[in-house]
Amino acid sequence: MSNELAAARIQRRGLMLVLSSPSGAGKTTLSRLLLQHDRDIELSVSVTTRAKRPAERDGVDYSFIDHDTFRAMVERDELLEYAQVFDHSYGTPRGPVERTLSAGRDMLFDIDWQGTQQLVERARQDLVSIFILPPSTEELERRLVSRAQDPPEVVARRMAKAADEMSHWAEYDYVIVNEQVDQSLELVKAILTAERLKRYRQVGLSDFVKSLRAGR
Ligand SMILES: Nc1nc2c(ncn2[C@@H]2O[C@H](COP(=O)(O)OP(=O)(O)O)[C@@H](O)[C@H]2O)c(=O)[nH]1
Ligand SMILES: Nc1ncnc2c1ncn2[C@@H]1O[C@H](COP(=O)(O)OP(=O)(O)O)[C@@H](O)[C@H]1O
């Protein structure tokens, strides 16, 4: 049997890849790079009530909505998970995730530990979670300041919450200390490659092996 035929008979179930970190550790940077390097994964664009940063695009980085719209989405059960972070509401629209996964493609989530816990409860088998740590506290602060997208008081509040957020590291499948972006990206890609090969994500594998054993 040729490889083409084998590939047609074994299809993959889409997985959900979560990247979480304290604010400023680099998860947005890594997400963007991964999306550029890998055509089989799509970003889940969250809705949020927080103000848009200058470099962000509505509908691309987030969908920026008001509190009433957010509440209405919750009431209509349109969010797969949602949480309050830094006094703002953030949530994952359900529709795009369901469409992407059922098409056998993967979905990337830049969400916090609260959202990750909710996804674990709903879809443990389909979930792969990575926690990104900064190399040091000083470097975390340097990155938050150098991003130059938030006012100083917002940076200070994000630093103050970093220790809390980092306490959730052990709830994740993988942990990466983000020193060099390129190296961290290679690690994320390696995790994704291995996770895609998990036996239970390969639909049709058992029939394929049966046919091999039967000499067909
Ligand atoms: N639970 C949940 N968390 C989210 C969602 N979108 C973003 N977040 C998290 O909210 C936190 C704040 O995000 P943001 O305001 O973009 O700040 P940043 O982390 O400094 O870039 C981060 O931990 C994000 O991962 C979401 O849809 N659900
Ligand atoms: N490995 C790294 N080394 C140096 N700077 C980084 C690294 N990763 C990210 N940065 C920078 O740090 C800042 C915060 O990164 P970002 O991806 O926005 O973090 P997060 O999404 O986790 O809040 C950005 O200015 C980004 O360019």
Automatic annotation (TrEMBL):
Keyword Cell cycle set for record: no
CDD domains cross-referenced by the UniProt entry: GMPK
One GO cellular component term noted in the UniProt record for this chain: cytosol
Positions contributing to ATP binding: S21, P22, S23, G24, A25, G26, K27, T28
Domain Guanylate kinase-like: 14-193
First-level EC class: transferase
Catalytic activity: GMP + ATP = GDP + ADP
Subcellular locations according to the entry: Cytoplasm
PANTHER family: GUANYLATE KINASE, GUANYLATE KINASE-RELATED
The name this protein goes by in its record: Guanylate kinase
Originating organism: Vineibacter terrae
Phylogenetic classification of the source organism: Bacteria, Pseudomonadati, Pseudomonadota, Alphaproteobacteria, Hyphomicrobiales
